[in-house]
Specification:
Blueprint lengths: L1 H10 L2 H20 L10 E8 L6 H5 L8 E3 L4 E3 L5 H17 L6 E10 L2 E9 L5 E8 L23 H17 L6 E8 L5 E9 L5 E8 L6 H5 L12 H13 L3 E8 L12 E10 L3 E10 L3 E13 L4 E9 L3 E10 L7 E16 L9 E18 L4 E15 L14 E12 L10 E11 L9 E13 L5 E13 L37 E15 L2 E13 L10 H5 L4 E11 L4 E9 L9 E7 L4
Parallel strand pairs: 1-5, 6-8, 9-11
Antiparallel strand pairs: 2-3, 4-5, 7-8, 10-11, 12-13, 13-14, 14-15, 15-16, 16-17, 17-18, 18-19, 19-20, 20-21, 21-22, 22-23, 23-24, 24-25, 25-26, 26-27
Length: 633
């Protein structure tokens, strides 16, 4: 220190020495008041490596929720590197060990090391010695009720010679309780006992059942009714007094009550103790607790779509006329192509049968537009007309996920201002009288943003059954969609849609307003709406297949997708299936692929996709930009 001082003194004048001393003093004072962020000096884990994991991938083990695993995205920052601590290391290794134990590796050992590869950066290495895996030597079910129809052992997940998995053990317990509940043993309990061999490599599994009595329905109490009649609840019950209460009857009752569209909350329970006025010891008081919804609703919406441009709707509804759950509604809607209004209602339970009668009266003005290749451009109008329509239907709920509808339609129309390339002779008759049947099954987890499940629909419509004044054609359409979760917010989706129209009787053309169009934000996204096909007049046969679409998260509420579509539209006006032979021999399918962005807002999803034609033809644009509210399908 003395040597340094002498050097400074010899090289700098006295004033310079004083100035440097003041700077050092100020720096020391500021450092005392504002110490450096200690988090920047912490050792952070930049990488985690797992070895010896022959049975499970490193991604699976890191996905258990390891606190020391770096993450590309987190709630804190992008490329998050957690701070190292021995307590978190102990937590993570314990988590991995318990995972192995729950999957039958009862003798797993592990060793964790940290290797510094940069200042305050560490690499964590977890070395696993899995050891032998315990297998099932035998499975027993004891205490089963005397019901020969109740087969239990064959349906269990855990079977002889399979590896021991605690998750499968819990699933088997729930399976047994569910099967007993399906037979009316709703108070059944299941205990499990594991007997290991001396070396812990084998285990006997014994499920001990205590079925208890058949639960029978005693008095039914309904709690929470104010504006709805008692009849509305009781007609939806799928159990009767003195009958056996089962899981299916409970779940079906709850689904029916929600489908009545007048309740926000439904719960069905039964007393665990016999009621004082019951006929036998297994009778229970069944209590149906409901919360009524607000019956009057008014809504307004506005949006934008590349073909319809700005669109809006205003509607009102009341769901409890006559205190019987009868619904009435009215709406007014408008966009660049369609403007009109609907009035209608729905009456549940016709003549004591659980069938809903729907009636809608509509009047609207419709223009057929052709999308231009410039984004936000106004479509070219090919024709416009005025429509009056009366639509009636009877709907029946087949199962929890499926329903069938019988539909009757009367429609009159006046179409004018037909422009080329549409031939005025292709307009068709001004009157359409049709009946149709529609079958729908929907098991999607979410209607607007599904991650799992399927959607299926099939419809057939026959027009012209009342005479020569109506258009005569048969129309059939199908729609199949599949959604699979790949973990987290990654979803793989696919959709196949197809339709065909065939003439019969006196008609020579399919009405211009009943033709098919494809292209746009839903399918074949490399083409603007109504631009795919032999020309812009529509078609009578189409195939539209979203072969694969991968949806993935990007950051917080932003997501993305990549997709591949194929399909086409054909225009046949034949009355015989032989007229469609050329389609089968040379289908001429078109292909496109692309990607887009999704903005997940609290009440809707904004979609922006860019589709590129993989087989671009002369005079076609190489791509199309599609903007829409909601996912593509």
């Amino acid at each position: 220190m003395e040597f340094t001082g002498r050097c400074i003194k010899n090289r700098y004048p006295q004033k310079a020495i004083l100035f440097i001393s003041l700077l050092a003093l100020l720096g020391h004072s500021q450092g005392a008041q504002h110490p450096p962020d200690s988090s920047t000096l912490q050792t952070r884990v930049g990488k985690i490596t797992i070895t010896g994991n022959a049975s499970f991938s490193a991604a699976t083990l890191k996905g258990l929720g390891l606190a020391l695993a770096p993450r590309l995205f987190s709630h804190k920052k992008i490329f998050f590197k957690p701070a190292f601590s021995f307590s978190l290391l102990k937590r993570d290794t314990t988590l991995v060990r318990r995972w192995y134990e729950s999957n039958g590796f009862l003798k797993t050992t592990m060793l964790a090391d940290t290797v510094m590869y940069a200042p305050h950066r560490a690499r964590l290495i977890i070395r696993i010695n899995e050891g032998p895996r315990t297998t099932i030597t035998d499975v027993h079910v004891t205490g089963a009720p005397p019901d020969k129809r109740l087969k239990l052992t064959n349906d269990l997940v855990l079977q002889k010679n399979n590896p021991l998995k605690i998750a499968d053990l819990n699933n088997d317990i729930q399976l047994l309780i569910g099967k007993l509940g399906d037979r009316g043993y709703l108070e059944a309990t299941v205990n499990c006992r594991l007997t290991f061999t001396p070396d812990s490599l084998g285990v006997d599994v014994d499920y001990a059942l205590q079925a208890g009595p058949h639960i029978r329905v005693g008095p039914v109490q309904i709690v929470g009714l104010h504006g709805v009649e008692d009849l509305v609840v009781r007609r939806e019950l799928r159990f009767r007094e003195k009958g056996v209460l089962t899981n299916k009857s409970l779940q079906t009752t709850i689904n029916n009550l929600y489908a009545a569209n007048v309740f926000d909350f439904v719960m069905v329970s039964f007393d665990s103790l016999a009621s004082s006025d019951s006929l036998n010891d297994s009778s229970r008081v069944v209590r149906v607790t409901i919360v009524e919804k607000k019956f009057f609703a008014a809504e307004a919406s506005v949006g934008y779509q590349t073909l319809e441009l700005v669109r809006g709707r205003v509607g009102v509804s009341y769901d409890n006329f006559f205190r019987r759950g009868v619904r009435g509604f009215g709406s007014v809607y408008a966009n660049y192509l369609v403007q009109g209004f609907d009035l209608g209602g729905a009456w549940p339970w016709i003549f004591g049968v659980p069938v809903t009668f729907n009636q809608t009266v509509s009047f609207f003005h419709r223009r057929e537009g052709l999308q231009q290749s410039v984004f936000f451009s106004i479509p070219d109008i090919l024709w416009d007309g005025y429509f009056s329509q009366l639509r009636s239907s009877l709907s029946y709920q087949l199962t929890r996920f499926s329903n069938v509808s019988l539909i009757h339609t009367l429609q009159t129309r006046t179409i004018a201002n037909v422009r080329p390339p549409i031939n005025p002779d292709s307009v068709g008759n001004p009157f359409t009288h049709s009946v149709g049947v529609t079958l729908v099954r929907d098991s999607r987890t979410d209607v607007f943003d599904p991650h799992r499940g399927t959607f299926s629909s099939a419809a057939i419509e026959v027009s012209g059954i009342t005479g020569k004044e109506s258009n005569h054609y048969i129309k059939g359409e199908g729609d199949q969609r599949v959604y699979a979760s790949l973990g987290g917010s990654f979803v793989l989706a696919s959709a196949l849609r197809a339709g065909i129209e065939r003439l019969y009787g006196l008609s020579t053309v399919v009405p211009i307003d009943q033709k098919f169009y494809i292209g746009g934000p839903d399918v074949m996204r490399g083409f603007y709406p109504k631009t795919l096909g032999p020309d812009s007049t529509g078609g009578t046969v189409y195939l539209a297949w979203n072969v694969a679409e991968l949806r993935f998260p990007i950051y917080k509420w932003f997501g993305g997708d990549v997709f591949f579509d194929m399909g086409n539209l054909w225009n046949f006006q034949g009355k015989s299936f032989s007229d469609y032979g050329s389609l089968l021999s040379k289908p001429g399918l078109r292909y496109n692929a692309g990607g887009g962005l999704r903005v997940h807002l609290p009440i809707f999803i904004l979609s922006l996709d860019v589709g590129f034609k993989l087989d671009k033809r002369l005079a076609e644009s190489p791509y199309a930009i599609q903007f829409n509210l909601g996912n593509s399908f």
